[in-house]
């Protein structure tokens, strides 16, 4: 394992709160960037979402480890001057305040671009900055609804903050690209992302279906709108999830798992397009056979036939799953907590990450550091 991390030497300053921007900067910190988290005197409100992780908030612990915390009241001239001194040395500036807020404080993209041409700025908004929705509140649940995700997911909120999370991931990717861009041409650039734009990107398939066929998919639970069979099927115990991707797999499912030559040769089930047209008949026929097996018997048959399958786990079962990986982080009070490992296993990651910052823990040190740099 190499000691060097790819973003070592990169200074990131982030006026961030909640999820999208903190997730982005946490990934930059994991790759070695120095991340200075600028918080209001009362702190990032995500610190108070809950207290489930040994007294700390789940969201905060997940996406704020490895950062330094400085408390600044940007309504005060002295603190604005402090932020400006830090930005003069920074490589990346991230913010997810309401549209126009940083500009009113004197840190708008155009002004920063003139003062610091190598600085990369990244602004995260709810609906973008150039339309009539620019000033709308854009919490994750609202964007799930506005983007159509709720409509194809049972008219409910997804169980995670998917709009925030995807936007944070997109911002991370865009910043890494911008750093490479600057390496080639010596210039920084302005990046702009929105939660709504991130959602319409991952909603591309149903949106394209609507745009070009006049009809998008309806909510169909665990099923897939374009693939059959794909979903949960009954056993004598709990359901088993089965996914068939091609005709070879369909034949193996019919003959090796279900032992049904009738299904394998049925003319209405001969292709995925036909099976989709006869979805109810296909699923009923399969279910009539699978419910004769126990859950484990069916899983064994499916695995032996190399058919994609799984079960719907509880959260407690996920924590015991053979594929689940975690790393340790230190909480502000010194306690240690396990958090899910980053999805990309890279040479520069370890099984322990830097700790989560106490509110304002680094304020005095950072102020002194950058005051000295300016005076020097």
The mean pLDDT is 92
Overall radius of gyration? 25 Å
The helix content, as a percent range, equals 40-55%
State the end-to-end CA separation.
38 Å
Number of strands: 11
State the assembly state of the protein chains.
single chain
Number of domains: 2
> How many H/I helices?
16
The structural class is alpha/beta
Order of helices and strands: EHEHEHEHHEHHEHHEEHHHHHEHEEH
Low-confidence spans = none
CATH topology-level fold name of the largest domain: Rossmann fold
What is the CATH superfamily of the largest domain?
Answer: Crotonobetainyl-coa:carnitine coa-transferase, domain 1
- Major beta sheet summary: 6 strands, parallel
Q: Which CATH C-level class of the largest domain is it?
A: Alpha Beta
Secondary structure topology:
Blueprint: E1 11-15, H1 20-30, E2 34-39, H2 58-63, E3 67-71, H3 77-89, E4 92-95, H4 101-104, H5 109-115, E5 120-125, H6 140-146, H7 162-185, E6 190-194, H8 195-202, H9 204-213, E7 230-233, E8 240-243, H10 247-257, H11 261-265, H12 272-277, H13 279-290, H14 295-304, E9 308-310, H15 315-319, E10 326-330, E11 336-340, H16 363-375
Parallel strand pairs: 1-2, 1-4, 2-3, 4-5, 5-6
Antiparallel strand pairs: 7-8, 8-9, 10-11
Helix pairs in contact: 1-7, 7-8
Task: Name its key features.
376 residues, alpha/beta, formyl-coa transferase, domain 3, six-stranded parallel beta sheet, 11 strands
Would you summarize the structure shown here?
This protein has helices at 20-30, 58-63, 77-89, 101-104, 109-115, 140-146, 162-185, 195-202, 204-213, 247-257, 261-265, 272-277, 279-290, 295-304, 315-319, 363-375, and strands at residues 11-15, 34-39, 67-71, 92-95, 120-125, 190-194, 230-233, 240-243, 308-310, 326-330, 336-340.
